[in-house]
Amino acid sequence: MSLSATSPLGTGPAAKAPRAQTAGRQEARWVATVAVLLVALLAYFCIAVPDFRDLGVSGILGLSEQFLFTGLIALGEALVILTGEIDLSTGAMSSLSGIVMAALWQQGINIWLAVVLALIISALGGAINGLFVTRFGIASLLVTLGTQFIFGSVATAVGGNAPPYNFPKAFVRLAGTGSVGPIPNELISFAVIAVVVWLLVARTRYGRGLVLIGYNRAAARYAGVNVQRTLFSSFVICGVLAGAAGIFVSGYYNAARDDIGNSLLLPAITVVVLGGVDIFGGKGRMSGVILAVFLLGFLDQGLLIRGNSSLTATMVEGIVLVLCLMLKIALDRRAGVRLKESLQRRFGSARRAAVLPDT
Amino acid sequence: LAMSATTAIAVAPASASATSRLPTIKVSMVPKLLGLAVFEANDQGAKQVAKKLGIDLTYTAPATASAEGQVAIFKAEIAQHYNVITTSSNDPTVPAPVLQEAMKAGIQVVTYDSDVPSARDFFMQDTAYNTIGSALIDAVEKFTGPKAQIAIMSSTADATIQNAWITAMKTYIAQKYPGLKIVTIGYGQSIESVSLSVAEGIIHAYPHLKAIIPIDSNAVPGTAAALTDLHMAGKIGDFGIGPPKESRAYFANGSLQALFLWDEIGQGKLDMLMARLAYEGAHGAPECTAKTPPANPTPSQWCGIRTNYAKVQSFSGASVGLPGTYTVSAAPNKVTGATKNTVIYSTPLEFTKANYLRYNF
Amino acid sequence: MPLLLVRNKGLRSQGPAATRGHPDRASGGDVDRRPRVGTPRVGTRYEGRSLTKSFDGATVLSQVDITFAPGEVHSVVGENGAGKSTLLKIMAGIYQPDSGQLVLGEERVGGLSPRSAQQLGVYLVPQEPALMQSLSVTENLFVGILRRGRLHFNVDWRSMKQEASAYLDRVGLDVDPEVRAEELSIAQQQLVECARALVHRCTVIYFDEPTSPLTAKEAGTLFEVMKNLRADGYTLGFISHRLDEVLAISDRVTVLRDGKRVSTALRSEVEGPSLVKAMVGRELTGRERVRPPFDATGRKEMLAVEDLTSEPSFAGVSFSVREGEVLGLAGLVGSGRTEIAETIFGLRPSDRGTVRLEGRRLEHRSPRACIDAGLVYLPEDRARHGIFADVEVERNVTAGVIPHLARYGPLVKPVAERDLAKQATDRTGVRMASLDTLIKALSGGNQQRAMLSRWLLAAPKVAIFDEPTRGVDVGAKDDIYHLVAQLAEGGLACVFISSELSELAITCDRVIAMYEGHVVGELSGAEVTDANLGSLIVGAHTI
Amino acid sequence: MTTLPTPAAAPASSGGPIALAGRFGDIVLGLLRRREVQLIVAILGLFAICSALHPQFGVPSNIAFILADSVTIMLVSVGQTIVVLGRGIDLSVSPILGIAAVSIGFPATASHLNIWLALLIALVIGVGLGIGNGVLVSVIGIPPIIATLATLTIYGGVQFIICGGYSVINVPAVYTNFGIATLLPGIPWLIVIGIGIVVLAYLFLTRTVTGRSVYAVGNNAEAAFRAGIPVRRILFTTYVICGLLAGLAGFIYLCQIGSATSTSGSDGNTNLYSIAAALIGGTTLIGGRGGPIGSALGAVFLSEALQAMISFRVNELWDPAGVGVLILIAVVADRQGSPVRHVLRRPFRQPAEVAK
Ligand SMILES: Nc1ncnc2c1ncn2[C@@H]1O[C@H](COP(=O)(O)OP(=O)(O)OP(=O)(O)O)[C@@H](O)[C@H]1O
Ligand SMILES: Nc1ncnc2c1ncn2[C@@H]1O[C@H](COP(=O)(O)OP(=O)(O)OP(=O)(O)O)[C@@H](O)[C@H]1O
Ligand SMILES: [Mg+2]
Ligand SMILES: [Mg+2]
C-alpha cells in the first residue's frame, strides 16, 4: 500500500502550497543580468570609444590578457566562498608561486618542471590554509589574513634583490603573450580551466557537496558529505589556481616579482561577488563568475582606452559593485527575501555551525 | 669621458614659425605613480616645452607604484595610438613585453629616471652613479670626520637605482675613506611612515651612529622626522638624495644637512625633447637616415638619435632652454651606470640650508 | 509607529491585586527610571480582527478573528503550515498583516514592530530560545530596555541585577543572573525567555511551541509558571502539537486549518478526537498499534551495538535490531539517546564498543561509510542538521546519495537526479508546488517527509529515526507512523527514538529505556505501554 | 579566552579560608584567562627580553617611540573593534584615515588652519565617510565585507582627487610639535590621547545602552531585533564611530608624520594592521566577543614586536610575516583555549528534572 494513498495530505492540491520559489531561477536571472550588462558595456565602448572599436576583434580579445589572471584567482576564490569560507591569501600566493617558479628556473631547472614545482608549492600553501581551517577549526578569514602576510614575506625573501626575468620563449608564448589566430593563448587556457571548474561545481559529486556545505555545514555532514575533506580540498584547489595565476602573470610580464599578485586579490573577490556568489556561501553559479571576469575586466580596460585614468577606473569599479549589489538585492527582495530572513542570513549563527571533527 | 661626439647635431632654438610646421605628436608621460613631488616637477617642466615641440602631452600614472598598473596604461595607450611613450618604470622587467609590443606598433619608447633596458629606444639617466655617490660621501665625511659609523635608508631591497647608488658609495668609501663604516641599510618600502619607524629603529639600535643617508624620496622626510622626534637633529648627520621642497621644515630645524638631486623641472623638459627626437629619428626628415647627417639641420630636419644611426651621438639642449650638449652612450659604462643608448641628464645639485628655499620641487 | 503608548505610571498601582508576586513590589517599588517602556496593564484584552497575510502570493492567513482575554490561556492548534506561528507573529509585531486590525484593550494599534509591541506589553516567546549566548542572563533579560542610570545614557547594572533575581525566582529558575546564557540548558533558556517577557512588563505573552524541545517534566515547570501568570491576570497564548498539553492547560482553543479559523471554543466544550478532526479535517486511526505483533523467528539481526561507550554521555550500551523490527529508544531529554545514535552514525567518537551491521563490524565510521553500508540516521534537529533551507527540495532529497548520482564518470546526470527525487518524494507524499520549491517554503511535516525521502533513496537496511515527529502536526505524525510501519514491513530494521511515550507504544515492537546514559530496561510486545515506559525512563525500575 | 568585560562586580565573598584560597586561585586563573592580561604579560615579557639583549631597547625615548607609533593603529583598531563586535568589518578605514589627513593637511600648510579646527574637520570627515559605510551596510543591506571593499576603492579615489597630484608637505610646526610632545620622558602625549579614547570606548561599550546593544546585535542580530533593539540603527552607529576614530587617527597621523600623500593610510596597511590588532586583542570576527582594551594592547604589542624586529636587525621584509604569525598564534590560542575554558568554568548545571 502506498503511503500517499493513506494520506489525503500527500496528494493535496499543489496549488495550495506556496508558489514555487526556486533558487535556480534567482541565480539564473542574475547570470543573465551580468551577461546583459557585459553585452551592453561592450556595445557602449564600441560605439562611444573609437580607439576601442579600432582594436578589432583580435585587439579586444587581446585586452583580456590583462585581467584573466584575476579571473583565475576568482575561480578558486569562488570555490572557497561557495563553501562559506574566504581566502585572503590568494594574491600573496600568486606572487609566491611566480617567484618560486622563476627562482627555480634561475637555478637551472627546466622551466616546465619549475612550473609544476611552483604549482605544488601553491597546493601546499592552500593545504596550510585548509589545515588550519579544518583541523583547528579557525575561521578562514583569520587564517588567511595571517598566511597572506607570511606568503608575502616568503615571496620577498625568495625573490631577493634581483627577481629573475626573461624566461624561455616557449614558456612566455604559452603562458603569456602568444596567441592562436586572434585568440590569446591565455584566453584559451582560461577557458579550459574555467570549463573544468564550472563542471566541477555544477556537475560533479564534489561540487554538490561543496555547495551543500555552503548552505548548511552541519546538515551536509549529517547527510554524509565529508565536510573536512571537501573544505580542505577547496583551499588546495584555490591555492593551485592562485599559483597558476601567478605563473600566467609572470609569463605575461616575462618577469617575476614578489608583490605582483597583491593587486589581484580585491578585484578577484569583487568579481566573485559581482558574479552572484553569496559571500556567506551556498548561493551562486560559476557561469556568473566567469561572465563577471569579463564584465569587470572590459570595464577597466575600456575606461583606460577611453582616456580615463586608472584611478577613475578603479573608482568606477567600486561604484559599479555597489550598484550591481543594490540591483541584486532589489531583484532578490522582489523574489521574497524578507528583512528577517536577510538579517538571519547575514547575522544568524545557525548556518555557521562549527566544523565538528570527523571520527 | 672617453666618448666624444663625432658629429654634434645642434638643435637650433625653435622659432614660432618653425614649430608651426612640426606635425603634432601624441606623447604620454607615465611616472611611477601620481602625487610624488619630483614627478609633478617633471610634468611641470614638460608642460612648459610641450607646445613648442609640437607635443600633445598626457600625464598619467597608476595610483600606487605598481608596474602592473603602468602596464595597463601602456596597453591602453597602444590602443589610443600614441606616438611616443615616456615612462619612469616601477620595474625593470615587468613592463618589457608590453613596451616591446608598443615598439612593434611603431611607438617610440623613452624611459627616464628608471629604465626598462630591454624595451625602449632611449633612456635618460638622472645622473651618473659615481658622481652622486662621491658627492654624498664627501659631504658626509666633512660632517663626521674620517672615522664614523654611518647608515643608509633605502626604499626596498630590490630597488635597482638605489642599489647602484649604494654600490657607488661603497666603492668610493673603499677608495677614499676606509674609516667610514656602513653599519646597516634600512628599507622604508618607499613609504614615509614606514621609513620613519625604520629610521627610529636604526637610531635606537646604533647609539654611536654619526650620519644617516636616506636615498629615497620617502626616506628623506621619514629619516628627518625620526631625528626630530628623537631630538637628534644635528647630532646625527642627515645627507640624502631627494627633492628639497618636501623637506623644508627639516632644513629649517637642522635635522637635514644636505640633499642631492638634479633639477627635476629641467629633466621634464629634456624628456620632451628626447621624445621629439626619438619620433623624428624614426619618422623624420630623410637626412636623418642618411649615412652622414647634415651638420646644422634646420628645425624641420629634426634628426633623431636612432639606434641604427650610430654616428649621431650628441645633441644640444638649447631648444628647450637647457645648457650644454647631451651625449648618447654607445656602450654600457659600469662607473656611471649608463647602458646602451643612455643619456645622462645632469650632475647633482646640492641643496643645503643656504639655498633650499630657491627650489620649488 | 505605535498608535498607543501607555505611559501613565499611575495605572500600575491600580492594577489588580493579583500582581502580588510582581518583583517591583518585592523590591519596594523602586522609582522606575526606564524612560520608554509602557506600564504593564495586567488584564488586557488583545484582539485580532480579520487578519490576512500572504507570502509570495500564497495566502497563509485569511480573515482570522481571534481574541485573547486576560486570565486565560488561549491555545491555537492546527496542522503544520496552518498559520499558527504566522498569526502569533503578527500579534507580536514581528510580521505586518496585509489587512486586518489589532485591538489592544479598547484601542487600535498598528504598524507594530517587535519593539513597539513590547512597549505595549505584548511578547512572543519563540520556539527556539533566542538568547545572546555570550551575554549574562541579566543582560539577556534586559536587552532592549537596559536600565539607564543617573547620567541617562549609562547603564544601571546594580538595580537590574537585583531585579533579575526576583524575576528569575518568579519563573522558578534558580540560576545565577551573572551566568552566561550559553551555560544554560534549553529548558532554562526557555524560562529565561519567559522571565524576559515579565521584565519587559509584558502582560500579553505568547508561547510558540515552547514545549517541543522540553521533556514532560520541564514542560510541567513551564505550565506551572503559565498557570501562575494566568492567576495573576496575564493574557496568554499558546501553540503546541501535543494535544494532551493543550487540553491540560488551555481555557480556550482556536483551531486553524489552511490559514482559516475553523472554530474557537472553551476548553470545556472540546475533547481530543473532535479537536483532531477539526484540525485535520478527517478521522485519524487513533492510538492503536499501527502494525501487527512482530515475529522474530527467522529474522536476521541487522544492527548490533555492543558495549558502546562515550563518556560522559553514555556507557556500556548494547542492543540489537532485527530485520523488519522497530526498536524504540525511550528516555528523558539528556538521557543520551541522540549521542548514541550520532556515535553509531560516526558523527561522534566513541571510547569503546562495537557496531555491527549484518554481522560485519563497522570500523572507522563516518556518515558516508554508514550510508554506503546501509545505515542511515534522520537527525533530531531538522532545521540545523537536516534541511538545507535555501536549496530546492530536489537537491535536499538527493543530498544523501550524492556519490550515486554520478552517471558519466564523475559527472552528475540531472535527469536521473530528478527521477530519483521524484520517486522518493512520491513515496512519502511530500506536498509541494514542485521539486524546485525551496524546502524552507514547506511546512514542518512536509520538510520531515522530504528528509525521510532522502534516506529512502539510500536504500537503507537499518534506519535510526531521532524524534521523527518533533514539530510535526497530528496528521503528519500519523503518516509518519504508517510510513515507519510500512518500511519495517518491507524488511527495514528501524530504531525509533522518541520522547513521546505514546508514539513508542503504538509503533515499536520492542523498546529499550535509557536513563542518564545507561540502558535501564527493555520492554517488548504487549508490555510496551505508556505507563510501563513512564516508570522506566525516570529510573524508577532499574533492572 | 575572550572574556567579555562583564559589568558584574565580584561575587560576594563567603566561606572559610580554604574557600578564600581557592577563590584567590580562581581569581588568578581567571585573570590569566583574560586576553588583556595575557597581552600585558606578553608586552612586558617581550620588553624585558629585548631590553636585556639590547642596550638601547629600554631607553625612555624608545619606549615613547613604541607607544607613539602604536597610537594611529590603536585608534583605528578600537573603531574596527566596535564594528567587529557588531559582527561587521570595515575595510575602508585606510582611505578614511588618508582623506582626513590630506583634507586638513592642505589648508594647514597653505593657510595655517587652526589646529583645533583641523581636528574638528578631521572628525567630521570621518563621521561623514562612516555614514557612507553605515548606509551601505545597514540601510541597503550589502554584506559589510563587500560594502567596505567597494568604499575602499571609492574613498581611495576621493583621496586621490583631493590630492590632485600633490602631497601635503611641510606641515606647520604647531602640528608636528603636537605629534612629538611628551608628557613625561617616555610618555608621549599621543599615547595619553590614545588611552583616553580607549577608556571612552570601553565605557561606551560596557556602560551605555547603545554600547551594550552592539554586543547584543553582534551576538545574535535576530534575537536583538526581537528584543526590540533597533538593529540597523546600532549597526549604522558602529560604522559612524569607526569612521570617527579613523578620522581622528588621520589627524594624529598628520601630526606624527608631518606629511600626507594620496596613499597615506593605505600604504601602511592600516586596514590589516587594525584588524590584526583587534584579533590579537581577543576580539573575534563572529561578533559579540572582545573589547577595545584588548585591541589597544594588541596595537602596542604589534608596535613593540615590529620595533624589536628592527632592533635585532631582522630584515624588514619579514615584518608582514611577523604580523601574520602573531595573528595565527592569537587565533590558535583562542581556539585551543576554549576547551580549557570548559574545564575551568563552573560545573554544568543539570536541568532540574534529572534529579530524582
Ligand atoms: N517568512 C516566510 N516566507 C514565506 N513563507 C512563509 C514564511 N513564514 C511562513 N511561511 C509559510 O506560511 C505557512 C504558515 O506557516 P506557519 O509558520 O504560520 O505555520 P505553523 O502553523 O506555525 O506550522 P508549524 O506547526 O509547522 O510551525 C507555511 O506554508 C509556511 O511555509
Ligand atoms: N552543553 C552540554 N554540556 C555538557 N553536557 C551536556 C551538554 N548537553 C548535554 N549534555 C549531556 O549529554 C548527555 C546527553 O544529552 P542529549 O540532550 O543529547 O540526550 P538525548 O537523550 O538525545 O536527549 P533528546 O531527547 O534531546 O534527544 C546528558 O548527560 C547531558 O547532560
Ligand atoms: Mg510554527
Ligand atoms: Mg536527542
Major sheet strand order of chain B: 3-2-4-5-6-14
Could you give the distance between the termini of chain B?
Answer: 30 Å
Bound molecules: adenosine-5'-triphosphate, magnesium ion
What order do the helices and strands of chain B follow?
Answer: EHEHEHEHEEHEHEHEHEHEHEEEE
User: Radius of gyration of chain D from the CA trace?
Assistant: 22 Å
Structural features, described:
- The complex is a heterotetramer of chains A (359), B (361), C (543) and D (356).
- Chain B is built from ten helices and 15 strands.
- In chain B, the strands form three sheets. A six-stranded parallel β-sheet of chain B has the order 3-2-4-5-6-14, sandwiched between helices.
- The longest helix of chain B is centred in the C-terminal third of the chain and has 20 residues, at 264-283.
- With 361 residues, chain B is an alpha/beta fold.
- By secondary structure, chain C is of the alpha/beta class.
- Chain C contains 20 helices and 22 strands.
- Mean pLDDT of chain C is 82; it is low at 1-40.
- In chain D, α4 (93-111) packs across α11.
- Chain D has one domain.
- In chain D, β1 (182-184) and β2 (187-188) form a beta hairpin.
- In chain D, 58% of the residues are buried.
- Chains in contact: A-B, A-C, A-D, B-D, C-D.
- At the A-C interface, α1, α2, α11 and α12 of A face α12, α13, α15, β18 and α16 of C.
- The complex binds adenosine-5'-triphosphate (ATP) (2 copies) and magnesium ion (2 copies).
- The site of one adenosine-5'-triphosphate has 15 residues of chain C, from α3.
